[in-house]
Amino acid sequence: MLNPLTEIYRDTWLLAVHKPAGLLMHRSPIDKHETEFALQYARALNGGEHVYPVHRLDRPTSGLLLFARDPDTASVLGQAMMAGEVSKTYLAVVRGWTPEQGVIDHPLREEPEDRRQKGQLQPVREARSAYQRLATTELPVAIERYPSSRYSLVELKPETGRKHQLRRHMKHINHPIIGDANHGRGRHNRYFAERFGAGRLMLAATELALAHPVTGEPLLLRAEPEESFSRVLSIFVEPECTLGVCATD
């Protein structure tokens, strides 16, 4: 069976991979019948040996995933994550023209993993996300009440780690991420799905910056967005943007 993960970085202690959109991290009560998981494929890349996820990506989110190859390294990285010492960067295509930059400081109520707990009141946690606008476009397509439709390409940096934080924060400032079935706008999602032949969440994890858990040296990991994401970036005709870097001709 072809492994859908692409190896990006490996050393004695770490394994970094690119996860495609649509692949679950691990077994979940939400998708009991699913049989393929990023965790099992990462284990296969690791010669069948156990790996320890340092963080997680939602099923519809593509991009960079980091695993520890031993429990001690996993513990060190877990502490670094809790202390906010690991910087994560994402790219997203959102509805509307966002401000050039900003910080979304908006507490979020926890979302339970098990749908059977949805009726139970969950605690509210502080949540902050920084964003920077990289490019904008206006398409001559009337999707809602306007004769044209505007979109932005943004770089997102979560400063906390709440479930669905980026998706919920972008909805909070009225710039939902394209392809977000739960927090987005259905008409825009359908337009992109029809135009590009498939619907997906336009959110990709592209960078991780951290101190190496063993050597202490700075480590910057990068992952190019997969083809289904990059194809949509064609709407931003100027400038061309890859990995958050935009350059004019």
Describe, in plain words, how this protein is organized in 3D:
Pfam families: PseudoU_synth_2 (PF00849). One of its GO terms (biological process) is tRNA processing. InterPro entries: PsdUridine_synth_cat_dom_sf, PsdUridine_synth_RluA-like_CS, PsdUridine_synth_RsuA/RluA, RluA_PseudoU_synthase. It catalyses: uridine(65) in tRNA = pseudouridine(65) in tRNA. This is tRNA pseudouridine synthase C. The chain has 249 residues and is an alpha+beta fold. The chain has a single domain, classed as Pseudouridine synthase (2-Layer Sandwich). Helix content is 17%, strand content 32%. The protein has 5 helices and 14 strands. Strands 1, 2, 3, 4, 5, 6, 9, 10, 11 and 12 form a 10-stranded mixed sheet that branches. A two-stranded antiparallel sheet has the order 7-8. A hairpin with a 2-residue loop joins strand 13 and strand 14. It is globular. The C terminus is likely disordered.
As a percent range, the share of strand residues is 25-35%
CATH superfamily: Pseudouridine synthase
Q: Give the name of the CATH architecture.
A: 2-Layer Sandwich
Number of helical segments with 4 or more residues: 5
Structure described in brief:
By secondary structure, the protein is of the alpha+beta class. It is built from 5 helices and 14 strands.
